[in-house]
Amino acid sequence: MSETSELHTLPARSGRAVRLKKGQSIRIINTHGQQVVDTWAFNAEDLREFMSMEHLRPTIGSIRPTAGHKLHTNRRRPILTFVEDTSPGIHDTLMAACDNYRYGLLGCTEYHDNCTDNLFAGMQRLGLTPPECPSPLNLWMNIPVHADGSTEWGVPVSKPGDHVVLRAEMDCVVAMSACPQDILPINGENLKPTEAHYQVLD
Amino acid sequence: MSETSELHTLPARSGRAVRLKKGQSIRIINTHGQQVVDTWAFNAEDLREFMSMEHLRPTIGSIRPTAGHKLHTNRRRPILTFVEDTSPGIHDTLMAACDNYRYGLLGCTEYHDNCTDNLFAGMQRLGLTPPECPSPLNLWMNIPVHADGSTEWGVPVSKPGDHVVLRAEMDCVVAMSACPQDILPINGENLKPTEAHYQVLD
């Protein structure tokens, strides 16, 4: 893999998308160490096929994909392979992308940036409109699940510069949102969403 | 509630759907005690709004809804209230509806009945086509989640005649599939999918 690939910024509270050819990879970097990055992948030939958390969990037999796992679509085909992870491997598959409805329930009375709109905005920059907002792979989101099934809004356990590498198993579009959540501590106790970075690797 | 409501059969390996007015309820009965019933709910006015497991989990703070919980849509509104549960309360929100792709991965070389097609067939009996197959509420499906995030295909812990009651919080369509899974033991160790029953309660 090229180590000189251009470093792109995923601005705080924003979304971006990138096309990957089969065999290319993307490195997603938690630059400041406490930022959740909601991540999606769509089949480039048919956006109705996409990485799906509810199809991925039964296939890998876990609620937490780790390096080595293939990540499956709603048609049960691998779209990405989770190749590398320098963080402790705590990512979330359970929680929907935040949306303006969610911030309304959290007390916001005006529009709040959110991952669902970021997905659509990021894809729009490539001239693409996804058919829906699939449940994302929430990189670095720490959602402990207790024995009774209850969940918690944890703080990320990652550190600055931690990164994951995801390899395309088909031509696809990977979309990312630097989660704008600043009410719950999922982006750190300071409640300060930050930028992240990404690189495409041949 | 009327106790003389007509008892309808949900045939083994099949799907059915029923319209509920706001305030009406449905009782879903695990007649033989070991049958998983995949369950969906759609806003009757706009089928693009539906009960959504990934939106429900953050709202209730749990991977396991129990009696007393409101069950939310992809627009974060309550569509059903989980009113009553005579079983031990072990239901699943993690696993996608089975589909023909899934049975292919499990070794089937010919078409296998599946909950995804049962959803569409059940809705079609009412002249309706859902926009997609949302991740279902898998009543009585026992998926233990271990501390490391790994999952298991458990046997139901329910007994014959156990039932749940779900009350409509808006005019909606509730769809059900008596899961045809006969390879994994989710419908009991005998691997024999059975019928279930349901009643609409005013």
TrEMBL record, chains A, B:
InterPro entries cross-referenced by the UniProt entry: DUF1989 (IPR018959)
Domain DUF1989: 9-173
Source taxon at top rank: Bacteria
A Pfam family: DUF1989
Protein name per UniProt: Urea carboxylase-associated family protein
Organism: Azospirillum oleiclasticum
